[in-house]
Amino acid sequence: MGVDADRRIHGPRPYALRVLWLYGRMLGQHALARLSYETDFLLTIGASALTQVLGLIFLGVVFSRIPSVRGWTFWQAALLYGLLLEVRGLAAAFGEGAWSIGGAVARGELDRLLLRPLPVLVQLYGGGLGWSAIADLGLGAAILAVAGPHVAIVWSFGTVAALCVALPSGAMVYWSAMLAANSIAFWTVGARGTVAFLLHGVSELAKFPLPVYPRLLAGVLTWCLPFAFLSFYPARALVAGPDLAVWLSPLAGLGSLLCAWLVWRAGLARYEGTGS
Amino acid sequence: MRAYAAIASRQFQSALQYRGNYALGMLSSLALVLAMFFFWHAGFDGRSAIAGYSWAQTKTYLLIGYLSANLVATSSEARMSESIRTGNVLCDLLLPVDFQGARLSEALGSVAAQGVPALLVTLAVAVAVAFSGVLPPSGIGAALGAAVALGLGVVLKSAIVYASALVCFWTTNYVGIAWSRAALTNLLCGALVPLAFFPAGVAAVLRWLPFAGITDTPARIYLGQLVGVHAFLAVCLEAAWTVAVLFGGRVLWRAASAQVTIHGG
Asked: Is residue B28, in this structure, part of any structural domain at all?
């Protein structure tokens, strides 16, 4: 009895560790629940795989007509696409909770979460994993494995380090964008998820190399909605060697995170429940 | 018939109520079209034609693709999924109206609310880029034929969306279903790449599939690439597919509705 039982029930002592532990427990419970619906699970992964394979076919068709666009060949573009799948997959795997914000606000379910002694965001994100990311991550890896040998990648310590920095940063950008966009639900209860769909649509621009776009749009994708960090800057680092932009990607990631956090906080401060 | 008209008008009003959502939805598909636009613009750099299409023709084709994509309400997956998940689908099942008919009426009601602004936006975009050369229809006959094909395409795509939305009876993940359905139709109908850009054999096969009727057929009639008997036959094929997909939806529905388990309370 005593300390041991206390640990088993409430988790480890330091608060931060306990939050992490609870997050892990919630995800574990969610996984058990989700995996018991096999058809649903397989359909989710199958649908995502189909979407990405179609995206790849599209690239193939496009490049069968044009050998290169603004200096980017098919294999380089495929590499970029593979990186996008990895980065977005990573963010989507742990970002599923963002999509439940709208419903939780509209139905007043946030009341319940607010009363529990655990940060609301941890509860929301602990409520689900983005299973479709399995397909994205797997397919992305396959594309990278196939495209890699066709592209003269400049392998060096710098390239590896740049990737280690850039990929998590890119994931942070997308993850933050989805949190911020879904937090709009605090202001417009009716428009559940619509802004998030819009931002996801904009992130589709990251399927093509940045030089394809006019300078203004390229600037927006670097400075305002930094989706260029999802795929283009890491891909360019692989193709042409690391440059300043890829080293600055943590700034984009952390900046996005900060903005999303502020939007979320401002939204939560407005939350009034649904009455009755 | 009156019941279906009432359902359509109810959906029309609901769509007007949430017009902000629809505007945002249109913007998000505009993002993809913009990406395509700039991509092809870069691709045409230093080329006068790709697969027999000039830049002006490609631009026009993509604009028609955007129009055809937005004439159809694709929110039925979300609505059906929600009502299946919450069990509200029972209310739909109890109504003395045909389930598919009711959903199609909803879709057409949304088209009226959503399609008109989409048409206006497309026209505005067309006017805005007119000076950079979006092509007019190749003739009065072509304009009429394209309008007919486009209208038929709305019904066809609504039927496809309905059939894919039925998958929601087996999964709660309607977003994944909606996205893969959109990826499939958009690629195979020509909304992203003119079908002519596919390898010749593949393009020929794709033109026999139901999706071509949504964008490729109206666009080619508009551009004057399909004329006379060929245009007529293409529209007939489109009509045949519309009937076939509608029928397929009914068959699928029978299997799907057997999945419904309503928990009492």
From this structure: yes
Each residue of B24-78: pLDDT tens digit? 766 777 777 778 888 888 888 878 888 889 988 988 898 888 888 777 655 666 7
Candidates A40, A62, A84, A131: best to mutate against B (most CBs of B within 10 A) is A62
Number of domains composing chain B: 1
User: How far is the alpha carbon of B1 from chain A, nearest alpha carbon, in Å?
Assistant: 31
B/e letters for A153-166, b = 16+ CB within 10 Å, e = fewer, are beeeeebeebbebb
Cα(A153)–Cα(B138) distance, integer angstroms: 48
- From B32, B188, B177, select the one nearest A57 (Cα to Cα): B188
Residue B226, SS3 per DSSP: coil
Q: Return the number of CB contacts < 8 Å for A and B.
A: 113
Structural domain harbouring B140: 2-257
Contact B114, B70 (CB under 8 A): yes
Structural Rg of chain B based on CA atoms: 19
CB atoms near residue A222 (< 10 Å): 18
Tens-digit pLDDT profile for residues A48-102: 888 889 989 988 998 888 888 888 999 999 999 999 999 999 999 999 889 888 8
B90 within domain boundaries: yes
User: Is B187 domain-assigned?
Assistant: yes
Tell me the ipTM for this assembly. Answer: 0.80
- The answer to whether position B241 is within a domain reads yes
